[in-house]
Structures are given as C-alpha cells and as structure tokens.
Specification:
globular; 2 domains; Rossmann fold; 6-stranded parallel beta sheet; 368 residues; 14 helices; alpha/beta
Length: 368
C-alpha cells in the first residue's frame, strides 16, 4: 500500500503534529508499506521519504510555512499515485477532495485541532457571531470531504457529527521513561512544555507558580518551548524562579526536563490530545490539566496519574499541592502512559487505510 501524507505546519520546531506525522510514517515504513510526506519548506526538494514544496513563512514569527500552491500539491499526488491520502491539514484536505473523487483515491483526514475552541483564543477581536458559523461550516466540510475522519480524543471528535473515529496517539516509551534517579529538591519543581502562544495558555503556568508562592509553597518552574508569547511571559515572571530553556530539539533533553519535575502543567484549554502530557506521564511525572480538554480524558481513565481543574491559577495551585510528593502518583503516571504505545496507533491507522482502500477497490470493480 502506498500512503501519501499531506501536512502544513510541519517544521523542525513543530510540536505534536510533527511527532505524530513522523512517527506514523516510520511505523508504516517498518510495516512494509510505501509512505511519502508532502510538507512545506523553503525550496522544492526531496529528502528521503519527505517531499518539500516551496512555501512562504507565516507573518506571525511562528516559523511555520504554509503551502499555497494547490497545483503543485496535486501534481505531486499525480506523480506519486497513492493508494490512500492521509491529510493532516484542513486546507489541504479541501484541495484534494475533487482530485481524489476523480481518481478514486480515498482520503483519510486527521483533525489535530478543535477550531471552535482555539480560534476564539487566536482571534479574540473577532465577534462570536462571525467565528461560530465559520468554524461550524469548516467542521461540516471537513467531515464530509473525506472517506474517514480521524480524531485523537472524544474532545476533538465533539466538533463533528457521528462520523469521527477516535484513534488515540501514542508516546515513545523508551525515550520518555522514569529517570534512574531523582535528585531531591528543596523546592517544588514544576514544568510546562509547549509552544508559547496564546492558545496554549503558558501564562497559566506562571500564574500558578505565583499562586503557590502566595500560599507559602516554595516552588520553581521550568518552561520548555518558544513562541511569540515569550517576552510577555518573561515580564510576567520577572520576580519568580522561572527558567526559560527554549525549544529543545533533543527529545532526550525534553524527557530529562519532564522527569526532573514533581508535577507537569498542561495548560491548553483546547488541547485535542496533548503529546507533552503523555510524555510527562511516561516519565512518571503526574499532570494537572484543564478540565474538558483531551489530557483530562487521559487522567480520568487512569486514577492517580493526575487531575484536571478549571483554567484558574488558584485551582491549578491547589491541584499541584495535592499531587506532589507521593510515590504512588508516579507509578500511576507511568502505568497510564504505557496504555498508549505508538504501535497501537500505527496498527489502527493501517487497518483504517486498508479498509478504505478495500472499499475503493470494490467500488471500482462494481462500477467497472
């Protein structure tokens, strides 16, 4: 089976989307299938199983590039002749739908964001009467213009109707594992990992530390990640023990930061899965997540691994105090992560692809 993945927002500094796309591709290749990723880049180039198409950077200092050349995408698809197209971007999905119908190539779409939650945070100036119809219309188009729609949590699936298939993502249980030895610290150690942008709410982590200090708890915070909010966060944290380590490309270094913490903070209220949350759990670090978002689903199904509360600094601080310092919490956190191996995600997605290809072949045979 030849699978072609299409993804915007795939770059060296991308977070969960890049990890998901790359891990799935590696799993498909290991299983003996053909798989090529088409993603944006500074120039047109071929790098192993990745085809980069020249694309401009977004003007928001994120470093992300977005493919604007529809004809180039469709030309690559005609060249590669896939059995199935796996799309990780709603714009690209709309582009390939007519192409896929004409060539009878099935499309499996993976939705990585819940726009009804994230767009209001990214565009606070836009009135709800404008955003809501727009996001609902996009959700309907996303759902109808694919053969299978995949989300990675019930929270993400709630944006759509009944067609969404929930396939949880996984975690690298070898790279992200409990440290052999944890140095005892005189301070409560917190960590937050993720892009420093409005929809991720990294300010909530800083405000949680401030609330802990107000309650007499001596704590410190390590911030792993970068983004447009970093200057504002530095100002917010200037009188607090907050360390900004920036974006870490080395996954082992990320694991070390997660494993050294007593509690990991998962602050995004619109997180549709939360790989960083699962990576913290794999390092035996319990998490505090925002109630209602996807990471809250994970810890709700695995008592003791963490908790979820409203996106309020005082509530987060109280939850941190309850979680910190107990061995059974760390054991529960690791056990929770072990329920999400990447091998299960890859196997499920391959079964999805095989079924849509089988159906497409049967339709071609029936219609001649």
């Amino acid at each position: 089976m030849r699978i072609v993945q299409l993804a915007n927002f795939h770059s060296p500094t991308s977070g969960g989307l890049r990890v998901a796309v790359d891990t799935l591709r590696a799993g498909y290749l290991d299983a003996g299938h053909d798989c090529v990723l088409v993603a944006p880049g500074p120039v047109d180039e071929i790098d192993g199983t990745v085809r980069r198409l020249r694309a401009p950077r977004l003007p928001n200092r994120s470093g992300y590039r977005v493919i604007l050349r529809r004809k180039a995408v469709l030309a690559v698809l005609d060249e590669l002749r896939p059995d199935v197209v796996e799309v990780h971007d709603k714009l690209l999905q709309q582009w390939v739908w007519a192409w896929s119908r004409a060539r009878r190539v099935p499309v499996v779409a993976m939705s990585h964001e819940r726009l009804t939650r994230s767009l209001p945070m990214l565009m606070p100036f836009a009135p709800d009467r404008v955003l809501r119809p727009a996001t609902e219309a996009l959700a309907r188009r996303t759902e109808t213009r694919c053969d299978v729609l995949v989300t990675c949590s019930r929270f993400a699936a709630a944006e759509f109707g009944q067609r969404a298939l929930v396939v949880p993502l996984g975690v690298d249980l070898e790279t992200f594992r409990p440290p052999a030895h944890r140095e005892p610290g005189r301070r409560l150690r917190l960590v937050v990992v993720g892009r420093l942008s409005a929809e991720k709410r990294p300010d909530l982590a800083v405000q949680t530390l401030r609330a802990l200090h107000a309650d007499g708890v001596d704590g410190e915070l390590t911030v792993v990640g970068d983004g447009p909010m970093r200057p504002a966060l530095a100002r917010l944290a200037r009188d607090l023990p907050v360390g900004f380590v920036g974006h870490l490309r080395d996954r082992v270094a990320v694991a070390a930061a997660l494993g050294a913490a007593d509690v990991a903070l998962v602050c995004a209220p619109a997180e549709t899965f939360g790989l960083a949350a699962l990576e913290a759990l794999a390092c035996a670090t319990p998490i505090v997540a925002v109630a209602g978002a996807a990471p809250a689903e994970i810890v709700a199904a695995h008592p003791g691994a963490g908790t979820s509360v409203g996106p309020d600094p005082a509530a987060f601080a109280r939850a941190v105090a309850r979680l910190s310092g107990t061995l059974h919490r760390r054991e529960a956190a690791r056990a929770c992560a072990e329920a999400y191996p990447w091998s299960a995600t890859v196997a499920t997605m391959l079964a999805v692809h095989a079924e849509v290809v089988r159906r497409a072949d049967a339709t071609i045979t029936a219609t001649g």
